[in-house]
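Hey, weird one. I pasted the Arylsulfatase sequence into the form twice and got a warning about non-standard characters only the second time. First submission, copied straight from the form history:
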Amino acid sequence: MTNRCLFIHGIVGAYLVLLMTGSASATDPQRPNILLFYVDDLAYNDIGCYRYPGDLVEGQLAEDDAPAPYPEKSAYAAANQASEIIKGKLISITPNLDALAQQGVKLTCYHSPSSVCSPSRLALLTGRTPSRFGLGGIISNKMDAGIPSRENTIPEMLKSVGYRTAAFGKWHLGKAEQHQPTLHGFDLYEPSSGQRETELLRLTQKTMAFIEKPHDDPFFVYFACHQPHYRNVAHPDFVGSVDKLLGKRRYLKGDRTTDTVEISSDYHDVVHELDHRIGQMLKHLDELGIADQTLVVFTSDNGSWSNHPKARQGVPGISGTGYPYRGAKFEAYEGSTRVPAIVRFPGVVPKNAISSEPVTGLDWWKTFADIAGAEIPSDRELDGFNVWPFLTGLPAVTSPRPFVPHDRGKGIVAISDRGLKQFSNRLIDIGKDQSELNDVSDSHPERSIAMKQQMDKTNARIRSDSPMLEPATRQSIITSIDQPYLNIASGETSSFTIAMNVAPDGPLTVNFHKRSGVESIELAPTSLTFTPTNWRSPQRVTVTAKIDDLDGCAVYVAEAANDIPIREIFLRHRNH
C-alpha cells in the first residue's frame, strides 16, 4: 500500500508540499545528509589553516613563513592568533577545522552575503541578497518584523524532497510567532539557552541526538551557534586553554578590564572550544558510519567585531581578525565579509584542495537544491549560483559566479571580480592593496567602467522585486493539525480544518493553489471563505490520494490577504 502523509507547517498564507521520497534515505548517495555550520563573527584569520601567509600542509610551515605587515588602518586585533610557529612547526588552536580542510576544499575567496548577522542569515536561507529585503542591520527583539513567510527557505526546499530538518542556536530573523524557525521549514528548533559557559556543549549534544535518531530520510542540520561572538565565554574546561596550548601567556597582568566576562575567558578560548565541539560532531558522524554520506559545510556569518569600542581601546580578547584584509563587521571592506569556508564530502569533493574562485553564502540555496534533486522556484529570482559542479570538478572547473556583491541592505555598494574591487568612486587591487586605500581606476579604466555598469545593473534588478521584511500581524490562519504529518493511504482520503485566529473586517477568502509537483493528491475545496460571524468555526479540507504505485510531491499555496501570514503544508506519500 502506498502511504501518504500530510505535514502542515505554519507561515503567512499556505504552501502545500507533497514530498517525493522514492527510496531516499540517509544512505542514498543522490540525497546526502547536509550539516551546515554557520558560526558567529568568526573572521578570515581565526582558524589555523587560514594563517597568512602560508598554508598548513601536514602540520608544517616553511621556515620563511613569517607574518606579512598588517595592512595600515585595518582591523585592531593582532594577526595570526589562532596559531603559533614553535620550532618550525605550526601549533593551531583549531586542529579539527584544519583537518576538515585537508579532507575537503578550503575556499579562500568566500564571502558572507552581508557584514551583519541578520541580513547574512536571511540571505543564506533564502538565496536572495539582503537589499531585496531592505535589510542592512540587525533584526532586534524590539522590531515587529522578520523573515517574510512567502520566502522559500533552504529547509523548506529540502523538506519538499524528503529531508528532516533541524536548527540549533541563533535565529535572529524575527521574534513574532509567524517568524519562528519551525514556521519556515525546520521540524525542530533548539534555541540558545543563555547559559554561555555550557551553551556549546549543550547544542552539540542536542545536535548529535538529532543526527543519531534512526530514520529513513536524510537530514539537514543548521548549526548556527552564537559563538565565538564577543561576550560569549568558553566552557570552564577551555578557559585559558589557548595559553596552555601555545605555551605562553598572551595577555600581561593588567591589560584586561575589570569586566568579569573578559577576565574569565577570551575570544580565542571560545574558538578553541568551538573547534573541539565541531570535532565531536564530526567524530559522531564517523561512529554512526554516515560520514561518507554527509556533506559538511563550515563558514561564518560575517567578519570580526574588531571595530568594537573596547577593541579600539586596546582591550585584548574581544575578537579575531580578517588579516590580511582590512575591515570588520558592519563595514564593506574585504575583511568584513571574506570569511573561512570549508566543504567536505568524502569521495565526491576532492581532498586537500584550495580554491581562490569566488563563492558566497547566496550560493548554497541552489547548490543544496542540486545535491538534493529539488526544484528551483519559477515564481521568484534567486541571487546565488549552483557551485556544486565547481566544487566537485576542482581544479578543472571554475566557479560560475561572475563577481562578488558587497550588499549593505540598501543596495550593492561594491563588487569584486577576481582581484579587483569596484566601489562607486574607486577601484581597488585587492591582491596588492589589502588596506583598500589606493584607487587604480586610471590603470584599468575599461574594467572600472564595466564593473560600475554591472553594479548599477544589479542594483536595478534587486530593487525592482523587493519583498521587504514582513511586519508582525495579529491575524493568521490556524489549522487542526498539531503534529508534523497526517498519514493518508493510496486511494483513500483524510482531512484537516482551517479557521482564523481573529475576526476579519469583512469576508475573507483563503485560496489553495498548487505550486509544483504531481497530480496524484488533490484538495477540496480549493477555497474557503470566512466572515466576521463564522471565523471561529473550523472549515474542513479533504485530501484525496489517487491510486498509483508512485511516490510523488507537489506544492500547494493557501493564502489570504497579503498581510496575513500563510500556513505551509507538506504532503508526503511513500510506496511501501
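That's the output from the first submission. The warning seems to come from a hidden character in my clipboard, not from the data itself. The chain has a mean pLDDT of 85.
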